[in-house]
Structures are given as C-alpha cells and as structure tokens.
Amino acid sequence: MGDKSPIEWTDATWNPSTGCSKVSPGCKNCYAERLSHRLHKMGNPKYKHGFRFTLHENALDLPLKWKRPRKIFVNSMSDLFHESMPEDFLEKCFNTMEKADWHVYQVLTKRPDRMLSFTKAYGRIPDHVWLGTSVELAMYNPRIEILKQVPAKTKFISFEPLLGPIGDVNLSGVSWAIVGGESGPNHRSIRSEWVREIRKNCRKQKVAFFFKQWGGPTAKSGGRTLDGREWNEYPIDFNATLELPLALSA
Q1: Can you tell me the mean pLDDT for 32-61?
Q2: At what angle do helices 87-99 and 112-122 cross, to 10 degrees?
C-alpha cells in the first residue's frame, strides 16, 4: 500500500510486512485478505504470495522518505506482532519509527501479549508511537488489560468490526477508542446501542471517541453519522505530537 490512505483515522499506511492469519471472529471477513488476493491477481509483486505472511525489507525506510508529518497506520495489511514476525525485523521497524520522529505511528494488533513482551524488552516507547489493540466482542476485553501494561504514552483500542456489546469496560490508561461496523460482501451488522454504550464509557472516562463507520456492503454505504453528527476525536495531545491542528470534537 502507498502513501495516502482511505482509512478515516489516519493519513498514510506503511506495510513492512503483509499477510496474516486469523485469531478471532473479527478476522472472519478480513478486508486485508480480500485486498491481498485482488492485488495478487493484478500481478502486484508485493503480493505474489497472496495473504501469506511476508517481510518487505525494501519498505523499512519508507517513512524516512516522507518529509511532511503525517499519521501513519503501521501494517494495515498485516499484524506487526504476528507470530511469524522475526524479533530482529520487528526491532528494525521500531528503529525506523524512532528515526522518522516527525510522524505519528498508529500500531494496531490482535496480539497484545506479544506487543507487551516486545515493548518491555525494547525499552521506552517514544511518545509519537501509539500502540493499540482490536476488540470486537466482550470476550476479548482481556486484550485491553494487556494493552494497559504496554509502556507507551498513547494507547488505543479499535472496536472494529464491532460484533456485539462490549459492556461496562474499564478504559483507564487508554487515550483513544475507534468504533466501526464491518464492511464488505459478507458484512455482519452493528447495532447502535453497542456504539452508544462505548461512547458513554468514553465520555465518562475522558477517552477520545472516533466513530469510523456503520459499515455495509461497502465501507461508505452506512455513513459515519451517529446521533446527527460525526465523531472525530483524537487524543488530547495529538496536536502537540504531530504539530497539526487538533481534531477534537466537543
């Protein structure tokens, strides 16, 4: 994937690895898997192995070439903490993030246990590196407790695709919550009460709330409006980190 991203909460994607494997129900209709197979059929050399986990050494320095500060979603087509990711390559990815420190990096995983073990060994995580985990059902709320132990200033949760009620979850230590429904030909529906429940928890616990989409046959089909407005909040110190205007809704 290239520079500009259609994902609402980021500016660009950087994929030092591609491909993944399914670990929970949220993976069932993975958009990255669909896109990888499409790119493979189109002859894109980066996806010659389809959705099999693959390292891309030549992509390691890409953020250093982007001189304008931007929010970068790391591994939109994979999981940086996949079990097949070599420790030394993972360290190289973090070294790049440290060097290209004019960007903000958004690293999202469904494997927060490996994120925790790696970051504890790596040492202090720079403030411009945000670390997050995905939670699609209440049964995966334990991922949040693991995330809270990660030594990063900004921690976030992606409740996408939201497949059921999350419950009265404790978000202490979490800066940001992204919520979204599933999109694609076999999308599973999202219910407004599940979204409002998370928003209520965010309001109560002073966590930035970003509503990405309702989902549907396509990402845009359901729109982004919740209760008459869009919700585009970011962590409160976002503008200081990236030196861009604060995108925070009241």
Answers
A1: 97
A2: 70
